[in-house]
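Explain this protein:
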Amino acid sequence: MYLHGTASINDEGHLEIGGCDTVELVKKYGTPLYVYDMELIKSRARSFKKMFEKYGVKSQVAYASKAFSSIAILQLVHEEGLSLDVVSGGELYTAAAAKFPIDKVHFHGNNKSEEELVMALDHKVGCIVVDNFHELHMLHYLCQKRKQTVNILLRVTPGIEAHTHDYILTGQEDSKFGFDLENGQAEMALNFSLDSEYLSPLGVHCHIGSQIFETIGFVMAAKKILEKLSLWKNEYDFITEVLNLGGGFGIRYTNDDTPLSPEQYVEKMIIEVSKETERLSLPMPELWIEPGRSLVGDAGTTLYTIGSRKDVPNIRKYVAVDGGMTDNIRPALYDAKYEAVLANRVLDQQDEVVSIAGKCCESGDMLIWDLPLPSPDKEDILAVFCTGAYGYAMANNYNRIPRPPVVFVEKGESRLVIKRESYEDLVRLDMSINEKSPI
């Protein structure tokens, strides 16, 4: 059994997180319930910052809030001195509601609407990561109309894909994101930006993948981009102030996952960029990274109550919980793998292999296949680990199931940070067939 962060087993054989007995958390808040280990999030944030400080490299560590966005988590990462990556008007609105310093907000996305760009300009975000020519031209037009300047990064595709242990070097990346680094698109975008009196290009951004367990992909991307930046310096007299190498740092979901520590990822980036800038006679840029999953993923645990079961002789034993693909759609979408325990009977002997089914009217609503557990009883509590990223963020109301609440735990104290949705919430925006539309 692998316990993340502050998780432990108390004298009663119950799972504890942040010094809080999960059985007591269930009594207080019900299930399903997302529980976040605040100490682990803080520790991870400090780990990412540590190496930049050690090497004296100017940097920004921006939390990629698409992993989990709420007022409370944004306030927490701000307290830890992080910047923020948002990808929609809703995430930007949440940042403003959390009173996050807007000059530390970077606005991403491959199809930002005019309304979202106006919102970003109204708030005066620190940087807009420009993804394509449509956006580039629209942003220039809006800024020209408003007589307003804005800092931008150009998102480029360096032709490197990295997922887990696999790295692919391609001549021209097939991606919906960014300006291609090899076919002249990136140069065209740079020249347009340099010619605009309203767009201030700080540098470039790339993102090579997700759940990355090695540093070679980041090294390959950094080398390729810096070689291009050297050409831009000579041809266009453009000096890059910022190099954003994105995120994608992996976490441990199961025994098959072997991620590096945050310090190892960052140190390798710093060493490689320092070496290449010296070789190419470039000034050392400010380095930005965007951890999301690696900050909150393994800090989150979802608690469920076990309900019905179905034994198919000589085939499978199904055990159902009171949640499923409405609070964790990743197994259905990606065949994502998770580990779990009975939170109220952690030390009992594992004498059955069962498959955990969700409650949705959907055959694909399965959370975990073939999980060894102590023989589960009705009302036992199942704790599924590492659900802090893309759990609540991707939660939905399929079958009209309300989304669960979120609690933060630390030093024996729990704090409700997102309320459980009610049935009334589900119909709040509905209108009667005879009701006159306000639009």
